[in-house]
């Protein structure tokens, strides 16, 4: 598995030459205190805002500012692109690192156009998760850029839009990037805690969770004076605050000798094999019961029976909140599938 080796910082948006340069200069000054060197300096040039009346980015004029940052501080530059014209402009200024925003990521037609436009261009493409929690779409987008021959494709986890009010701006739904890791262990995942949090309070906590899960990098919005920022004011850190935050994170080592865990892993594999066999046996018994219920024309749901099953389980519960929640979900799934199987048998030869 890949280590933690991507670190991206920079403002939400490029606003002026001074703001871009000053942010980069301060990042450069603090960079000795960073756990790894800055992989990319980020800055949005075109901003996908909800309202046309909001600051929508300065556009092409920002590129010479970013080139100056690259020249003076040796930070590779990355920008968000959302249409093929943006890619042409990146090529014009020799910017080869781009990211796909969460809103763009919901449209496969646009993603395909973008993938076709980067073909042969030697681009690093960071694919943010779509705003909706759709893992297949996220993976599909990654594959489109891989097929187009991108130099490198990375995933960026920035959380998922939710209608209900929450302390976080976007729901992390960690199970989705974790499933991405399981399905595509070869794709590095970068966490963007700034857009998940939407404020500076939770950035550290979210970054630590991402590191604990073994994600491979962080993208953190950084501005030389956040209170004057024209977008995402609440969530941007100064380079100084960023350095403090990074110094408080606990980075994991990935060099644990495998044999240290061999015994426990073997035992767990054996238990899992037994659970799987027992579950099949349980399903066979459910089928027998279903046939009897069918013959006798009995209803499929028998609440008193099911309550006994639940009580039986609870005797063995550990009674810690996490385990209890798991057990509840597990039992509900077990019942659901048992009923589904019984339905199937009930309908056999009925039509
Ligand atoms: C951004 O990175 O500034 C941005 C607009 O992100 P997202 O697409 O995740 O909202
Ligand atoms: Mn932003």
Please give a structural write-up:
With 351 residues, the protein is α/β, with parallel strands linked by helices. It folds into two domains: 6-248, Alpha-Beta Barrel (TIM Barrel); 258-346, Chorismate Mutase Domain, subunit A. 49% of the residues lie in helices and 10% in strands. It is built from twelve helices and eight strands. Helix 4 runs parallel beside helix 5 (135-147). The longest helix has 38 residues, at 259-296. Manganese (II) ion (MN) binds next to loops.
Q: Report strand order across the widest sheet.
A: 1-2-3-4-5-6-7-8
CATH topology of the largest domain: TIM Barrel
Total E-strand runs: 8
Unreliable residue runs = none
- Structural category is alpha/beta
Sheet-strand content, in percent, reads: 5-15%
The major β-sheet equals: 8 strands, parallel, barrel
How many individual helices? 12
Q: Cofactors and ligands present? A: phosphoenolpyruvate, manganese (II) ion
Give the overall form: elongated
List the helices and strands in order. EHEHEHEHEHEHEHHEHHHH
Gyration radius, to the nearest Å? 25 Å
Q: Could you estimate the helical fraction of the residues in percent?
A: 40-55%
Name of the level-1 CATH class of the largest domain: Alpha Beta
**Arithmetic mean of pLDDT:** 95
- What is the count of distinct domains? 2
CATH superfamily of the largest domain: Aldolase class I
Alpha-carbon distance between the two ends = 52 Å
């Amino acid at each position: 598995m890949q280590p933690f080796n991507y670190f991206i910082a920079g403002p939400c948006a490029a606003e002026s030459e001074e703001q871009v340069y000053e942010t980069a200069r301060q990042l450069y000054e603090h960079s000795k205190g960073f756990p790894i060197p800055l992989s990319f300096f980020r800055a949005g040039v075109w901003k996908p805002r909800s309202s046309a009346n909001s600051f929508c980015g300065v556009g092409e004029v920002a590129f010479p500012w970013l080139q100056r940052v690259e020249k003076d501080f040796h930070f590779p530059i990355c920008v968000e692109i959302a249409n093929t014209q943006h890619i042409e402009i990146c090529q014009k200024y020799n910017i080869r690192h781009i990211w796909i925003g969460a809103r763009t990521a919901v449209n496969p037609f646009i993603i395909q156009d973008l993938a076709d436009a980067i073909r042969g261009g030697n681009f690093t493409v960071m694919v943010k998760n779509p705003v909706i929690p759709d893992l297949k779409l996220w993976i599909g987008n990654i594959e489109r850029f891989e097929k187009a021959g991108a130099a490198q494709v990375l995933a960026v986890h920035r959380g998922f839009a939710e209608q209900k009010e929450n302390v976080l701006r976007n729901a992390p739904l960690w199970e989705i990037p974790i499933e991405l890791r399981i399905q595509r262990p070869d794709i590095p995942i970068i966490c963007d805690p700034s857009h998940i949090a939407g404020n500076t309070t939770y950035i550290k906590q979210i970054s630590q969770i991402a590191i604990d899960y073994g994600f491979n990098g962080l993208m953190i919005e950084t501005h030389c004076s956040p209170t004057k920022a024209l977008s995402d004011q609440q969530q941007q850190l100064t380079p100084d605050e960023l350095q403090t935050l990074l110094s408080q994170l606990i980075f994991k080592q990935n060099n644990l000798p495998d044999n240290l865990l061999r015994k426990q892993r073997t035992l767990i594999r054996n238990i899992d094999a037994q659970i799987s066999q027992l579950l099949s046996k349980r399903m066979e018994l459910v089928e027998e019961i279903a046939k009897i219920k069918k013959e006798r024309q009995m209803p499929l749901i028998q609440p008193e029976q099911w309550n006994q099953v639940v009580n039986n389980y609870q005797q063995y519960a550990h009674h810690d909140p996490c385990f209890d929640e798991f057990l509840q979900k597990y039992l509900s799934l077990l019942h659901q599938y048992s009923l589904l199987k019984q339905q199937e048998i009930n309908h056999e030869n009925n039509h």
